[in-house]
């Protein structure tokens, strides 16, 4: 049964790759080009906060398949505890990002992550974040479709 599931998943992955255009597969962006991409509405897999500039670097978090988004979070922003249905990885590329795990956002439960830092957002695992005076930019990658579910009162 596991072998059949693995085979089916591999087939789906091959179909997604085969259906993708070369532009979807081959993309090179320097930091300026990434920052110049259009800001998209706070949609699937984002915090939903309109102050956060979200740019899609690859794919579409609302659809099946691999995606990467860039979030630029302004100074002194707090993101309440929430979950996503997909397993995600992230890299801090600018600023200082204070990230923590748990169902309640507590500043003393975060770890301060500088540029080059890596962290995970396991599927269904509550997490939260905040920025200080300098804000932060984070690249997040997952396999969609993604979503965001706040625990308790959102933001």
Lay out the secondary structure.
Blueprint: H1 2-19, H2 22-25, H3 31-36, E1 53-58, E2 65-73, E3 78-83, E4 88-101, E5 110-113, E6 118-121, E7 127-144, E8 149-150
Antiparallel strand pairs: 1-2, 2-7, 3-7, 3-8, 4-5, 4-6, 4-7
What does this structure look like?
The protein is of the alpha+beta class. It has one domain: Jelly Rolls, CATH 2.60.120.10. The chain is 18% helix and 41% strand. The protein is built from three helices and eight strands, in the order αααββββββββ. It has helices at 2-19, 22-25, 31-36, and strands spanning 53-58, 65-73, 78-83, 88-101, 110-113, 118-121, 127-144, 149-150. Strands 1, 2, 3, 4, 5, 6, 7 and 8 form an eight-stranded antiparallel beta sheet that branches. β4 (88-101) and β5 (110-113) form a beta hairpin. The longest helix has 18 residues, at 2-19. Residues 1-21 have low confidence and may be disordered. Keywords: Signal. Residues 1-20 form the signal peptide.
């Amino acid at each position: 049964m596991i072998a059949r599931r693995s085979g089916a998943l591999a087939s789906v992955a091959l179909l997604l790759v085969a259906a993708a255009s070369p532009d979807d597969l081959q993309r090179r962006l320097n930091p300026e080009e990434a920052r110049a991409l259009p800001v998209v509405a706070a949609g699937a897999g984002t915090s939903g906060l309109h102050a956060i500039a979200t740019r899609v670097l690859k794919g579409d978090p609302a659809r099946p398949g691999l995606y990467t988004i860039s979030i630029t979070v302004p100074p002194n922003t707090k993101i309440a505890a929430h979950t996503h249905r997909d397993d995600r990885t992230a890299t801090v590329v600018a600023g200082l990002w204070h990230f923590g795990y748990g169902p309640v956002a507590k500043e003393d439960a975060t770890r301060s992550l500088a540029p080059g830092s890596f962290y995970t957002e396991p599927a269904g695992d509550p997490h939260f974040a905040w920025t200080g005076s300098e804000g932060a930019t984070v690249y997040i990658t997952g396999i969609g479709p993604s979503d965001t579910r706040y625990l308790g009162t959102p933001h």
